[in-house]
Amino acid sequence: MSIPPPECLKSPMHVPSKLLMGPGPSNSPPQVHQAMLKPLLGHLHPEFTQIMDEVKEGLRYLFQTKSDVVCCVSGTGHAGMEATMCNLLEPNDVILIAQNGIWGERAADMASRHEADVRVIKKPAGEIFQLDELEAALKEHRPAVLFLVQGESSSGALQPIYGVGPLCQKYGVLLAVDAVASLGGVPFFMDQWGVDVVYTGTQKVISAPPSMAPIAFSDRAMAKVRARKKPIRSFYADITWLANYWGCDGSPRKYHHTGPVSSVYALREALSLVCAEGLESLWARHAACAQRLHDGLTALNLQLFISDPAKRTPTVTTIKVPEGVDWMKVTKYFMNKYRVEISGGLGPSAGLVWRVGLMGYNCTSDNVDLVLKIMKEALDQQSIITSKL
Amino acid sequence: MSIPPPECLKSPMHVPSKLLMGPGPSNSPPQVHQAMLKPLLGHLHPEFTQIMDEVKEGLRYLFQTKSDVVCCVSGTGHAGMEATMCNLLEPNDVILIAQNGIWGERAADMASRHEADVRVIKKPAGEIFQLDELEAALKEHRPAVLFLVQGESSSGALQPIYGVGPLCQKYGVLLAVDAVASLGGVPFFMDQWGVDVVYTGTQKVISAPPSMAPIAFSDRAMAKVRARKKPIRSFYADITWLANYWGCDGSPRKYHHTGPVSSVYALREALSLVCAEGLESLWARHAACAQRLHDGLTALNLQLFISDPAKRTPTVTTIKVPEGVDWMKVTKYFMNKYRVEISGGLGPSAGLVWRVGLMGYNCTSDNVDLVLKIMKEALDQQSIITSKL
Predict the structure, then answer these.
(1) A43 CA to chain B: closest CA distance, Å?
(2) Which of A8, B54, B211, B251 is deepest in the core (most CB within 10 A)?
């Protein structure tokens, strides 16, 4: 054997316990981990397709939709974004991307790989788009698709979606929404709001491990897919195949790909917890914890990156790094002393902010208080260190 | 709330224990399930990238390669096929696909979605391609890529790969191999055999849950990727990004996508078991169990679909359904009475064969004997039923 077995796999795997209070993944509750102890089933066994059906019902509740096509891409959140782009866009289709952070940038990257005609309207990180601004852009660019990010995790901004759907319908545009970092933490009504495609990730508010990208397509979105002139470039993310595998199209399930069986179990259990709590309670819990965090940060003389509370997603709080403070020393203090993760910025917010996530299982007042306590210590520590220099 | 929480998620999830002796997924050992109990880490935490590095070393052993670019696509086996196509092919690139079952068909589907010039050489299910036939086709079609399936799970055929690499190098062709249903069960030497891209799935011989597609690219393959004129259509499967995230390119890891953390833990533990056993032992175990199964089936007067033992992959045995026997009644007997899965055919072998998988954790003489015992009962049962009609 010219390549011997590696030494590193002879030692036990080392996985420390951490409290993940960054912008995701968040921790999963024990029930969700335990679901993955259950034995594997075949990807088309009736007991497994039953579980897929249950997941689908849970997702219909979470997305607030009666749409037929509600399923999961068997990949993490980015796979949901890619599925949106590769199914909706044909070469030269115009897509309008409202960009105020990294997700709009990634969406533009993906759309351009599909040879779409990518038009971008930009705002600085932390800002959001108003209805009149969106309408002006729709009029100007006449896109086939408008792409918005509900919770921009790089800045902490919450983009209002209410009101955009009717505008899109007026201009014959499909509305696609990235709800990875927001869904379950804030209200979302796919049908009432007129959203045509929405996707999320399992590892945020849902609190399952990162593994799948739940996604829903409206009838209007499916009509565009079915009217395509060119084939969908991806077989794996082809929504017509996925919809069949997930039992959404009324036809017998065909073998598309092997579903990630254990991950589907975990998602099923996580959704059962979401449904047992109820969306109203989940939203209220996120709002209350975010308020407690924001109040506590203000009491520490810290400033939030987004000054208008209405523009903040409760799921990701961005905090300005005060002048003279080394942001990385603070995140290291959190991790090294307490094994608690908070993050620095990302993309346009890199170096400017800390990001604290409050998502699903981790969104509790105890965790908020712990973050505040450590933040105070870390800043005190740093001022001591600074004064020593 | 116009969509109420679904009733179905109020009941506990129902997952029966089954012995999966079909062509995959196969069962995972307890250690592998237990790995998924470990707490989540961030997708770029040093403890997690350490585990990714360990997975990479395990995969280098399994693929028998020193290549830098060894990683996983965060999707199941089909995602590996798609990553191969979308990275290697540009519009109008000629790809030659040796098609003797469903995987060659799917590969042709995927390649054509990428607007490649797809040339197919066909053989009936169960047949394999000889070196002189491949050379003649390379001469005729002058492809950029030759695609072979080592273990064609729809027919049970084992395509020899040895000798194809030098041919491909002679004609300036990249050699891509699907080893989903074979890797670990039969010898495979990426470097020695001159394979340029190889991928597999986690749920076959590796015996982890379906979740990821381990994949390796040679330097020659990466050179083609880097010389592309058009961007790789998929961001999610872009091997240059994946290679960076998996620490294969010597640059600091950037945030590409959120890796499926728990699935990586499971794969790490499964690979540690593979490495502890050693490839020679693993190959010998598969060969011995397959021999035991084939002998036992012959003793039951059943015929194997592939008559030449050298052309059979030990991982998937295809058995001719005798005339007058209802194949589905037999598979139902296995499942209903014993909760053991064996499968019918797939694609070109549908209705003609049963398929029995011997993969990794499930590849034991006890399981072989159990399958033989049930098969005898099922056939006896059916002849009784048949004689009653």
Answers:
(1) 8
(2) B211
